[in-house]
Amino acid sequence: MHARHLLIILITLTITGCEKIYDIPIPEESNKMVLNLIMNKDSIMMARVTLSGRMNGLQDMQEIPNAKVRLFENGTFKETLEPFNSSFRTYYRSNTVPRAGATYRVTAAAPGYPEVSGSDQIPDTVQVGEIKMTVAQINSWQAKATVSVQLHDDPAVQNYYRVRLYLIREWVDANGNGGRQKIEQYFEVEEANLSLFTDATSNNFFTTDALFNGRSPRFIFRANTDGAFKKMLVEITSLSQNSYNYLNSTFMAQEKNEDGFSEKVIVFNNIQNGFGIVGGVAQREYLLVR
Q1: Could you tell me the pTM of the whole model?
Q2: CA 274 to CA 276: how far, in whole Å?
Q3: Which of 3, 176, 184, 284 has the most CB atoms less than 10 A away?
């Protein structure tokens, strides 16, 4: 018995004597620079630089002061973006207007942080066919608008699309000053030839041309609206792959991450050494009058 006990003690000492403690570094995802810039064809660029962290819905993301934001077009330096303040936020504005087909790279640097950068190409404007609207009046305060949109897809490239609807309200006050308001609409969408139909309402419709490459699908959007509305705005955007991945994942995260039973969505990121997006879009608006 004594020999057996001695053997057990020796084995235990051997095992514990080989034990090593490893410190595994866990990467810190907070306190990183966030660079956000959606570049719209033929429009001035406006970037924002903030600090990463958990959003609580009450406070805006912390800004990084004195950032230096630089713009490159097709590999050539163009300009340093100028900071300006709007609605208590700091933005960095360009004089350069992005061109379709050009590739833009944006860098941001600030004391105490590694330089971050992102790049993307600007897509061309969507080729749109017929757009029309019909309105069914339900009662004096409610109507149902049906908007038909035909897209002409370019078969030579992979295309990414987003469609949104806005109700337009216009008024003139007692002093003769005019006002205009865009009200985002929720809608259902279908495309009969693609067997696409959803009765779930949404304020964004994202799609690729995977099911209709080189064809001209016609999408139908149905929205419950104010019965007295006069104008509807259809926003049709061509997206780069980076912009599609970012905007679609951001939208899905907002839809699903609030649901404790849904799988969490990771938002796309194309910023080196940080977080955020530098993405290209080509957006156009079409006004429909009732």
Answers
A1: 0.84
A2: 7
A3: 284
